């Protein structure tokens, strides 16, 4: 039986709001680097015949971010100028909530989604967990995504900390986490990326602590 996944590339919220000058400018990894990997992943998917879904966050005209009709709310040119097979608009973090994404994926016999875009710790995370609960296998390209720093009543975390911790947590259970070039290699070779589990991740951590 073939183990080759039937993939769809899910391009989450690659909008101008995350670019330099936007109200949510991505800090780590830098947006200017990661958006090029977004473009590379879309091009590789197109070449490999992998279906592409573009997701866009919507907000009212009065919203401080992603306001309807604003420059920040529009798709970034690197995504807007590239082909796509399906388009989803959303108002909540998960691309599955109140959208036809699951129905479209099922209709196209997709069993694996590859998530790229922004932000690692918010819409990517929500979409990935939602997909896992629906029975999809998930891949996440960590250099085609990014995070912001946060400070609130719970404390402070840098963008690097948030992105790094999220990728470790995702790899432990929710998704196969890999770089864009690695993913392109798997597309060309028809191979599967490494997946992990919580017990193994925990035991490795104990070994590092004891070293």
TrEMBL record:
InterPro entries: Isochorismatase-like_dom (IPR000868), Isochorismatase-like_hydrls (IPR050272), Isochorismatase-like_sf (IPR036380)
Domain Isochorismatase-like: 8-181
Gene3D superfamilies: Isochorismatase-like
Annotated CDD domains: nicotinamidase_related
Superkingdom of source: Bacteria
Any one GO molecular function term: hydrolase activity
Record's keyword terms, sorted: Hydrolase
UniProt name for this protein: Cysteine hydrolase
Species of origin: Mesorhizobium zhangyense
